[in-house]
Amino acid sequence: MEMVRACMRPAASASSGPRVLVLGGTGRVGGSTATALSQLRPDLNILIGGRNREKGMPLVSKLGQRSEFIHVDIRNSSRLKEVLEGVDLVVHAAGPFQRDDKCTVLQAATFTKTRYTDICDGVDYSWRAKSFHEQAKASGVPALITAGISPGVSNVMAAELVRTAKGESGGEPETLRFFYYIAGTGGAGPTTLGTSLLLLGEDVIAYDKGSEIKLKPYSGARNIDFGKGIGKKYVYLMNLPEVKSTHKNLGLPTVHALFGSDPFIWNWGMETFANFLPSVRVVSQINYYLRPGLLAPLTLWVKV
Ligand SMILES: NC(=O)c1ccc[n+]([C@@H]2O[C@H](COP(=O)([O-])OP(=O)(O)OC[C@H]3O[C@@H](n4cnc5c(N)ncnc54)[C@H](OP(=O)(O)O)[C@@H]3O)[C@@H](O)[C@H]2O)c1
């Protein structure tokens, strides 16, 4: 999780309550975020942003009078700037972030001086977003990027583990491995599964004794004990953003991320896609036909 700039400006519409726009609010993560925000802060006006009004209206009705649907395609910069005028905070959950070669929402937010956060989980996107640091600083808006579970919470967990390891041993940690295990089929939206499949078309960037290496996706199986109630599960190499950020920012020489799924047949499927599907375009289309699993227990392992 990267804090690009932390400074607050007064809410644009304080008299009627702050206005929060959730892009991708018609999806699973955006919809859950909007619901949680309205429960935590009933004074917020929550705008559900997306391309499909019919998909958004049930949530708008559920959230009540302070909510409305805003038709916006995040690829349309001028429309984005228009809808961000008068918005106090924009939450960007309209993935997939992989293969997106622009940061239209972040750029529009810095242009309109709107506070910004996203749940980006893509390596290239997150580093591109970081390159707007000076721009965000100049416009004086707080922009919190990659604030989801992975790499947001996982980076914070890694930083804490490294801090603890340094304190206990007095030495410098050498190796960090992220192990993720996903179970079930409900909860997350179709884009999340699409993302997992897109990742199978990407080389895995990892670090070995300080050198960047490229590895094959869904290779390097390990059997990891996730503890009581879950037990031992197989996990495989995936290209996840926390590998680069922990290597660069925490200074760990060796970092990898491995990911596994239940039921086990999903792992065979993922391995098969990684081995035999030649084109990422084909992989991305499968997005529409399969349902994803839930991001569940995450463990980290640090060797000092
Ligand atoms: N960082 C993390 O820990 C974390 C965890 C879970 C998920 N994610 C990421 O969060 C994203 C959302 O996941 P999800 O499970 O909520 O997926 P989802 O249910 O498919 O929701 C994505 C939403 O984005 C909207 N959208 C897509 N393209 C858009 C565009 N050009 N303009 C406006 N709206 C657009 C879609 O609406 P329409 O297509 O109907 O317009 C859809 O409602 C994914 O990229 C996923 O990888 C990150």
TrEMBL record:
This is Saccharopine dehydrogenase NADP binding domain-containing protein. It comes from the Eukaryota. Residues 20-143 form the Saccharopine dehydrogenase NADP binding domain. It holds the Pfam family Sacchrp_dh_NADP.
